[in-house]
Design goal:
There is one protein chain. The protein is an all-alpha fold and 523 residues long. It has 15 helices and two strands. The protein has helices at 27-46, 48-86, 105-116, 118-138, 152-167, 169-187, 200-203, 210-246, 252-299, 302-323, 332-359, 366-398, 412-418, 423-452, 462-522; strands at residues 18-20, 23-25. Strand 1 and strand 2 form a beta hairpin. Helix 2 (48-86) packs parallel to helix 15 and helix 10 crosses helix 12 (366-398). The model has no long low-confidence stretch (mean pLDDT 85).
Length: 523
């Protein structure tokens, strides 16, 4: 057995917490993240135009300079997951051979999907295929792989392949790497649910010192900005639905009022915890999403859409090598504005989704964990994108929804629903779906940030969780109102860049951990 695994010493981690204003915190992580978060809010309020320009320039510089690095990171993390899953290491059960799962597969999968990218799929499920189809019909650098100018069938294939690429295997592999690392070292080595735990096999006790603190602070910032980005797009789309249904104009005040209402609902969910809050809402939302999906199938060209599932999957796999190529791209507009941004966004979500995945995955085998965290959500994503994306493209091609292609991103879902029967009812259901995803994402993200800033503790007082609930919401609201989604996305990219390197190093630590467990079980 590896020397590092003979006697695990977590040093003072988790023991150096302090009680401040009734909150149990790790001061070396809590105060830097809290103060810098407050500084971002204050700067954006006092200088909205300057902050918007700063964040916009930051996004452009990051994607133009490090596009190859972010894309390569996604490729390597996907390869790591596949190799581990098919190897004998995939048989390892997280928590030991006698460990049993705490949740049914349905509950487990619902929480994985709800905390992962449910709200993003609802937002981009129509708008991204439509955007790529429109760009592909025109051709050029803004279209995936240069597009197919004037060829509707080829443009549709490229649009769906590119959309699925952005939402399927790669992002879930990024989440799975972080989740597997934290689950392995927590359940099999008794370490904290922390990104730094995967570094222990590589740097020993330094993982609990200043080096680990830097990793933890970076993870918290990535979670804050990644989550704030999702809350921003959720608020914009929910507001668009309210405008569509009730004619209430979308304004800064209206968006703030909507977020205020949802913050109260999220508070109730946080108070209920995972079992009484997130689990119940996630399961309810999963069934609501399935119902909306079934409605689109029933009222649209059902047989054609079902046939498109196989076609889109083939097109995705066929174009996968070209779409994942990190260098020499001629479609720079699409590559940087969509895929590279997404990769940074997914990476910024890795600590949050990974920690949540780890906390609910005791008793799963490594192979089951990777399949559940990577393959199953990818399949559901392909189904969702096919049904909504192809239905929208079909409406555009047939001329039945002339305003769909020109509508803003946040309103395109409602433009599609408006062209189908029972538009008022389905649009209301879509708004509810968005808002519940809004709550589950905000809730689970708050719990994860609270855990990371309290030395890995999960028994912190409610006021501590509420502090982070409003800190994340505050950043989301301020950046959304001052600079729009560009500011939120720039924050996610800025933290995603260094975190990409952290995830790559984590793979080495996780591999050492898996080999140590495998040797232990062989003896």
């Amino acid at each position: 057995m590896a020397d590092w695994a003979d006697s695990i010493d977590t040093g003072a981690y988790g023991k150096a917490t302090r009680t401040v204003l009734g909150m149990r915190i790790d001061p070396l992580v809590f105060f830097p993240t809290a103060l810098i978060s407050l500084a971002v809010i204050v700067y954006s309020v006092l200088a909205p135009q300057q902050s918007a320009k700063l964040f916009g320039d930051l996004r452009a510089w990051s994607t133009n300079t490090f596009d190859w690095f972010l894309m390569s990171t996604g490729n390597l993390l996907l390869l790591f997951c596949v190799v581990v899953a098919v190897s004998p290491l995939g048989k390892i059960r997280l928590g030991g051979k006698g460990a049993s799962p705490d949740y049914s597969r349905m509950s487990w999968f619902s929480m994985l999907f709800g905390a992962g990218m449910g709200i993003g799929l609802v937002f981009y499920g129509v708008s991204e295929p439509v955007s790529h189809f429109t760009a592909s019909m025109m051709g050029g650098a803004a279209a995936p792989l240069g597009g197919a100018a004037g060829n509707a069938a080829a443009a549709r294939d490229l649009a769906m392949a590119a959309t699925i690429f952005d939402w399927a295997l790669h992002p879930w592999a990024i989440f799975a790497v972080a989740g597997l690392a934290m689950a392995l070292f927590a359940y099999d080595f008794g370490m904290p649910f922390s990104m730094r735990s995967a570094f222990y096999p590589l740097i020993g006790k330094a993982a609990w010192g200043r080096t680990g603190d830097v990793i933890e602070i970076l993870s918290v910032f990535a979670t804050i900005f990644g989550l704030a980005s999702s809350l921003g797009i959720g608020a914009q789309q929910a507001m668009a639905g309210v405008t569509f249904l009730y004619g209430i104009p979308s304004s800064k005040l209206a968006i703030m009022a909507l977020i205020a209402i949802m913050s109260f609902v999220t508070f109730l969910s946080v108070r209920g915890g995972i079992d009484r809050g997130i689990r119940i809402l996630s399961e309810a939302n999963m069934w609501m999403a399935v119902a909306l999906l079934a409605f689109i199938l029933a009222t649209g060209p059902a047989l054609a859409l079902l046939g498109d599932l196989a076609r889109n999957t083939f097109q995705y796999l066929w174009h996968l090598p070209a779409l994942s190529n990190p260098v020499g791209r001629e479609d720079q507009g699409f590559y940087r504005d969509w895929s590279v941004f997404y990769w940074a966004w997914w990476i910024s979500w890795a600590p949050f989704v990974g920690t949540f995945m780890a906390r609910i995955s005791l008793g799963r085998t490594v192979r089951e964990f990777i399949a559940g965290a990577m393959i199953a959500p990818s399949v559901l994503g392909i189904i969702w994108l096919t049904v909504f994306g192809d239905a929208a493209i079909a409406e555009i091609v047939s001329g039945q929804a002339p305003g769909l292609a020109k509508a803003s991103l946040e309103t395109q879902l409602f433009e599609l629903l408006g062209s189908l029967p029972w538009a008022q009812f389905t649009s209301f259901a879509a708004v509810v779906l968005i808002l519940v995803f809004f709550v589950t994402g905000w809730d689970s993200g708050t719990l994860v940030i609270d855990c990371m800033t309290s030395g890995g503790r999960t028994d912190t007082p409610l006021r501590q969780k509420v502090f982070w609930l409003f800190a994340v919401g505050g950043i989301g609201v301020v950046l959304l109102l001052s600079g729009g989604l560009t500011s939120l996305q720039a924050g996610a990219i800025a933290t995603g860049l260094p975190l990409a390197l952290v995830l790559l190093v984590m793979c080495a630590g996780t591999l050492k951990g898996l080999l140590a467990v495998h040797r232990r079980q062989q003896n």
